[in-house]
Amino acid sequence: MPTALITGANRGLGLEFTRQYAADGWKVLATCRDPEAATALKSIKGEIQVLPLDVADFLAIETVSRILAKEKIDLLLNNAGVIGPLQWAFGDTDYNAWAEVFRINTQAPLKMTECFVDQVASSDKKLIVSITSRLGSISSNDSGEQYTYRSSKAALNMVHKSLSIDLAEKGITTAVIHPGWAKTDMGGANATVDPVDSVSGIRKVIDGLNSADSGKFFNYDGAPIDW
Ligand SMILES: NC(=O)c1ccc[n+]([C@@H]2O[C@H](COP(=O)([O-])OP(=O)(O)OC[C@H]3O[C@@H](n4cnc5c(N)ncnc54)[C@H](OP(=O)(O)O)[C@@H]3O)[C@@H](O)[C@H]2O)c1
Fold first, then answer.
1. In CATH, what number is assigned to the domain containing residue 57?
2. CA distance 82 to 146
3. What is the 169 CA–ligand 1 centroid distance (Å)?
4. pLDDT tens-digit profile of 2-48?
5. 128 is a domain residue
């Protein structure tokens, strides 16, 4: 039975990832900030271990890694993310909030990777995937604004490019995947993609990943996205 470690598993795409992987027979190490309040997560049937983890707390990441030292983690899925302040026009930047968004969206996936690399390397599938955003694509930015979120995801993409090179000798494949404009708290009610379809698409992309894909940027339907 393969094992996935998922961050931000209590709602949105993380909850749906947990549902689908558990239904597919995977063991899921489902992390979230507040397990006590994670009613929907705790109601999912299957082999699921719920663990507390605020990914902005790097000491906590180290602690969870020590707790899970003996696990073979086939898929590290860095899903947790924040959009940051919704005032995102030029001149409106909240620099303290930007630092917090950067810590969660960009630094935490690298810290997770540093802390869990051995567990991933000892697994069969050896996959590390982060949920990025098309808003982090420099070449497709034709509408400006969103300095905070865009830059956090563009930097996350760069983190993964380096990981794909540095972790190749361990046999680890990494990728960043855009979930589409998905109907979650973050995506909002006008979003066009059902989280079920987003997650099933992403799972298909993940399932097809091989070493030649490492460091690449995909849409949830498998189409490549330009940096
Ligand atoms: N929805 C979209 O249209 C869309 C588009 C592009 C990319 N994405 C990306 O997809 C991923 C999932 O987004 P979503 O749409 O599912 O958003 P969401 O519904 O807002 O859920 C975000 C999840 O991240 C968790 N999270 C936030 N900060 C955290 C922290 N410091 N530590 C641990 N968990 C934390 C939240 O936990 P709490 O409940 O504790 O806050 C929640 O579980 C994110 O990386 C997002 O940037 C989403």
1. 3.40.50.720
2. 13
3. 31
4. 999 999 999 999 999 999 999 999 999 999 999 999 999 999 999 99
5. yes
| Ligand 1 site residues, Cβ closer than 6 angstroms | 7-8, 10-14, 32-34, 54-56, 79-82, 104, 131, 133, 178-179, 181-182, 184-187, 191
Neighbours of 87 (CB within 10 A): 12
225 lies in some domain: no
DSSP tally for the chain: helices H, then strands E: 7, 7
Asked, for residue 214, whether it belongs to a domain, the answer is yes
* pTM higher than 0.90: yes
Helical H runs in the chain?
12-23, 39-42, 58-67, 95-102, 108-121, 147-166, 195-207
Rounded to the nearest whole angstrom, what is the distance from the C-alpha of residue 87 to the centroid of ligand 1?
18
